[in-house]
């Protein structure tokens, strides 16, 4: 396993007790020789994580990130600061103010469109300080952006880009933060890119279908609020539309409760047996088999003929490495991007960057392999 860090480099992880963050830290540790500083206000929650990391390479530090002096002391002289503490609308401000002052690189996996917009406005400040700040480096946004760039690269012109995420049943591990995030992305208006400019759409409306998983057919998708329409239009300003769509796998057969089930049986979407089995499993607290994926569909032209390209993850659920659950896909993508952020030459870049501004799809796929992802799980392509 190659590494671009020395055993004297320190990487600080702020908010290290979070579940998705723990996956990122564990996988990053396998691909890097860096010393790991696990910073959190609740250091007791870090003890289990410490036991899973290489002996002697990780230490813990109690940190209130809103304490400016403590934050500066924690990040001074480090090779990289990784922010995993949310909500980013509150936490990114103090850390992004501290990193340029300390002249240390920064990376996060922010998935909030409002805070992403606010952080992009700090580009000149980061440039003046001479440090790179890499934002939205998780699964979505993050890996979804790389799939989009990869898909568009197979077309001569692009008309529309759909970024799609299927989320499976993660009980009993689902936490309050996940539920809060679902409520946030499913209520009110959301940002899309249409007709060459930002536009607001109603959230959680039925948007369309996409072949999200294997041979299981088309999955109904809903419009959601994620930052991809904030950053990707910088590369594809004429694309119309560009949207983020999501489906919740285990709710597909329970969309409108009982009346919805009856309608779905009558319309042939599912059988009476499937509905009864789902109700029985739910009553017993038995989770539905996990299905999850990231998919990007770009529609445009190739050689002056209409064409589409689909890029998606290949495997999910039991036996999968990268798409075992939300924590694994987000943490694995973030770990790979941390490895890339520490590569020689990256420190020469200055400013605030979304992923598509500094990373290339093939380099990202190689980094995923570095943190343990089997090559055959990373991406598959369908095209016309």
Automatic annotation (TrEMBL):
<dbReference type="Pfam" id="PF03435">
    <property type="entry name" value="Sacchrp_dh_NADP"/>
</dbReference>
<dbReference type="InterPro" id="IPR036291">
    <property type="entry name" value="NAD(P)-bd_dom_sf"/>
</dbReference>
<protein>
    <submittedName>
        <fullName>Saccharopine dehydrogenase-domain-containing protein</fullName>
    </submittedName>
</protein>
<feature type="domain" description="Saccharopine dehydrogenase NADP binding">
    <location>
        <begin position="11"/>
        <end position="131"/>
    </location>
</feature>
<dbReference type="InterPro" id="IPR005097">
    <property type="entry name" value="Sacchrp_dh_NADP-bd"/>
</dbReference>
